């Protein structure tokens, strides 16, 4: 086997008194995708940031091609050929793709002007090598997250990246976008780049990697080539036990209608949206990214105005309502974007959880700190939160922040809970806990709408699945009918029944 491109040896890192990495060693090899897995808070992103030059290790060394290296800044790491792609790209939105790629190092013409032609040419070349079609002179503003990640990858290539690290790059991508990213990754691998991939999605990890390392509580607990691993083994190493049921759905007899949405319309976004949700029901809302699912949720919750239609919750009809009115009527929304809409980063975890229930806590006069702590502890323990409730939310790992957002809304015990991608970025152990909790709440009579791009999750959890395509409802499937195939069929806007389609395919001899 070729020697490693980069080697980390016995890395330690603490933040204050919190020890995050304890003697981690890891090597990345040329032409290999090495996946790093572990529970939320295991230390994956911290390790990535050390490799990226964002954090300094307290102890331990890094070697590249046998030589010891020390990165004191991201640009030092980049110069040495180590680039990192994060979930949320960090490009300058007003500049063009090419300008972003050559930020701070634009080539000049003989006359000292910036050589735009050369920049565009270089970017074009990389694009065609990667098999992507974007225009170098287009502004970054308006590009999808997936395209912005491609721009970051091209930037890395212009630094002649030897090592490319991706920290949960697929969390916000659609199925198609993930496929394209993986094609790009495959090309980089063939060029001999050493890649590291951090993800909570087991299917992705197993489809893309040649090597898997699992971390737990800041240590490596298992590492080896792909063929030595099974899904069960990865899960067992990650969470320290095997998981019995991934989708612990309880059977519930639906009760009274809790939400009645009638002919909801928001011009250019969605129309003709009518459906009901009953107490005890979990209704899945499936569809491709951009189908309008989150937009419907936002309108029901009163963030975006409706142009027409009616939202009735219990006996209360809501028109031109604000989120405050929606909350008073008993609706809760766990938003898709936890960073911007879900949390107040500088507040403590405890305050974030209790913010919405504060009224409940305050009913007897002063906010009792004890009561507040009790509520926060109850829900965060249930979500297996790693982190202290009296610390600011900002220092939690990504997945743990997601758990706080969930805890915050579960604590309000709304009549109708809308969860938008509830387990995105959440590790498998906590994911099954989230599912168990949702299932129990439904059993206690809560009505739940679950928006998710994770099809097994929708199929495993929903009593009924509504599918959207381009702003309209295209199917309503009972639990027994909701297969991946049937959902994708409706999500891509195909009409007729799958059975007809299959019959046709068979008669054409192309089954
Ligand atoms: N600046 C900081 N101050 C204090 N603690 C921190 C800081 N940054 C990270 N931590 C802690 O380090 C631990 C590891 O965090 P890290 O982000 O590396 O986890 P992760 O494995 O990437 O998790 P996730 O899967 O949720 O992204 C967490 O417990 C986190 O709270
Ligand atoms: Mg992380």
Structure description:
It is globular and about 70 Å long. The longest helix has 16 residues, at 175-190. The strands form four sheets. Strands 6-7-8-3-9-10 form a six-stranded mixed β-sheet, sandwiched between helices. It has 511 residues and is of the alpha/beta class. It has helices spanning 44-52, 74-79, 97-101, 116-130, 145-158, 175-190, 202-208, 231-239, 293-300, 323-329, 338-342, 349-354, 358-362, 369-382, 398-410, 428-443, 455-461, 484-491, 498-507; strands at 6-15, 18-28, 33-38, 59-64, 67-69, 82-85, 163-167, 194-198, 211-216, 219-225, 257-266, 270-278, 282-287, 308-313, 316-318, 331-334, 416-420, 447-451, 464-469, 472-478. The structure holds adenosine-5'-triphosphate (ATP) and magnesium ion. Magnesium ion (MG) is lined by residues 44-45, 397-398. Adenosine-5'-triphosphate (ATP) is lined by residues 15, 18, 20, 38, 40-46, 386-387, 395-400, 427.
Topology at a glance:
Elements: E1 6-15, E2 18-28, E3 33-38, H1 44-52, E4 59-64, E5 67-69, H2 74-79, E6 82-85, H3 97-101, H4 116-130, H5 145-158, E7 163-167, H6 175-190, E8 194-198, H7 202-208, E9 211-216, E10 219-225, H8 231-239, E11 257-266, E12 270-278, E13 282-287, H9 293-300, E14 308-313, E15 316-318, H10 323-329, E16 331-334, H11 338-342, H12 349-354, H13 358-362, H14 369-382, H15 398-410, E17 416-420, H16 428-443, E18 447-451, H17 455-461, E19 464-469, E20 472-478, H18 484-491, H19 498-507
Parallel strand pairs: 3-8, 3-9, 6-7, 7-8, 13-18, 13-19, 16-17, 17-18
Antiparallel strand pairs: 1-2, 1-4, 4-5, 9-10, 11-12, 11-14, 14-15, 19-20
Helix pairs in contact: 4-5, 14-15
Bound molecules: adenosine-5'-triphosphate and magnesium ion.
